[in-house]
Design a protein that fits this description.
alpha+beta; 23 strands; 491 residues; 2 domains; 19% helix; Rieske Iron-sulfur Protein
Length: 491
Amino acid sequence: MNHEQNLRLTQVGPGTPGGQLQRRFWQPIALVEEFDPMLAPDMGSREHPRLIKAVRALGKDFVLVKNHDGTWALMDRDCPHRGANLAFARYESIYSQNNSTLRSIYAGKVPVLLEKSEERSVHTAIRCPFHGWAFQTSGKLAGQCIDTPAEPEGSTMCQHIKQRNYPVQEKAGVVWAWFGDAEPEPMPDLDCFAAPASHSFAFKGLWHANWLQCFEVGMDPAHPSFLHRFLQDADLQETGSNAGGKQFRSAAAGDVAGERWPMTRVMRELHRPKLAAQAVQSDTLQGIRITALRALSEQTTHVRMTQAIFPHIFVIPLSETLTITQWHLPVDDGHTYWFSVFTSFDAPIDQAAMRAQRLPYTTLPHYIPKAGAHNAWGFSPEEQATRTFLGMGEEDINVHDQWAVESMGGLQDRTREHLATSDKIIVLYRRWLQRAQDAAAAGQAPPPLPAALSLKEPPSTVDGFAPTASWEDWWKERVAEKRRKASWIKQ
């Protein structure tokens, strides 16, 4: 790969082929909980909540607004008057009559809406502190300028000014935005969107690296045997699958001669997987079903099945009953927010516990990991010699992936890499990405992968020991059993 090809694959700004492609998909831009003053120190207080938040995606800056009625608005961040930063705007409700603004009725508290009539109405809006220009934040006219108070009496200038507004929706504890010019596509058919709020939990983190290297590390099925290798196994009774970052401390499904194997042992001892990829598609998504087979004997094989969903989603198992669906939002060419939605097919998730397990490793309000290049990602030579293959902690394996992506540099130089047989999934994805970018540049939808299987249900995951001769039947039975036991899936 030459330098120009690398840039083409990775750049996401306006007008780039990669940016055009990314704008054909829904993107996660914030956690809903980021607007909770009890969790987000930059969002005011219970008495005076802050309803406006700065966000950045695909190389551009925006403001996200949570209206007092629970609806959302997303606009460009620069005021169309003279470019001031609307992240510092005031949130107001504006009482108007006969298209002429009379007064603001918001003073830091949820307003009492006035009775509407044909002559008067109330608009929720953000008002720029520079010259007082106000922009509507709800309804079909979101983004419309509705007040320019420094202009002469009777001025109709505001009627001709509209700040660009983007479609937004809330799902699975995450706020999603559509940045393309075309009409928004349906959200992909994923279990995390079907599960009730009691059975899901969302979290995120910022990595100082390009989105593609973040995604490629996540969907790589060979790396867990090394990057996440633990040199000893823990008592399975003492480590729960809900624990933060400890997914390789839980047990694999099934057993070996009556013995339950922790995933740490599976990954450590069976480190040369046989990899297979199958293109899959449905009406709302397309991607790659990734299977890693680790043969224990002629009779028993460990099967780990994950999914890579375009453009930057993967679905992986956390345990026998929990999955992780993770997006990789391109903030700009050198920064990525991963958004993870944990989904339970069994009992409700203890969301407070899940959050508490992760907050010690994160700096709020921007969800920046406490580990990084500045402190060598917490590297310990003693730990590397005695406890883990990497030497960067046992409690939070997210830092393992963080090191992998950030140590490549903000934008990986792919001209210096040497891909191997174990990178076949990466090669397949890059080829599809190149074709998809070509299509997007021509104004077309991404092309399907050849010989893709049609999905009849959302993509699922498997992690466990199967009979070698019938592992394909085994994984289908495991998936069907997991879905039958899920109370929230209609049978």
